[in-house]
Specification:
CATH superfamily of the largest domain: IHF-like DNA-binding proteins
CATH architecture of the largest domain: Irregular
Number of helices: 3
Helix content: 40-55%
Order of helices and strands: HHEEEEEH
Largest sheet: 3 strands, antiparallel
CATH topology of the largest domain: HU Protein, Chain A
């Protein structure tokens, strides 16, 4: 599911206009982004948690040329699925076509 499909599903299930649904989805994502920037963690019980992890720099290698290149330190978002989400996904694996 992508963002526009999420907007459509929200509008369909709540009987609100598509434009209002898009505003709500954007507000949720913006709020989550701000929270990660401020304190680096979001926890949604039963779904999972998002946190920002710091990665130190390292010496990388260009696979095409073999040249060594420095990779700068960075902060990246990380998601860990909660027990409820893991259980639901695992439960539904038998329903997926092979």
């Amino acid at each position: 599911m992508n963002k526009s499909e999420l907007v459509s599903e929200l509008a369909k299930h709540t009987d609100i206009p598509l434009r209002k649904s898009e505003e709500i989805v954007n507000m949720v994502f913006d709020t989550m982004t701000e929270a990660l920037n401020k304190n680096g963690r979001i926890e949604i019980r039963g779904f999972g948690s998002f946190e920002v992890r710091d990665y130190s720099g390292y010496a990388g290698r260009n696979p095409k040329t073999g040249e060594n290149i420095p990779v700068m330190a960075k902060r990246l978002p990380f998601f860990k699925a909660g027990k409820g989400l893991r259980a639901m996904v695992d439960e539904n694996k038998n329903l997926m076509p092979k």
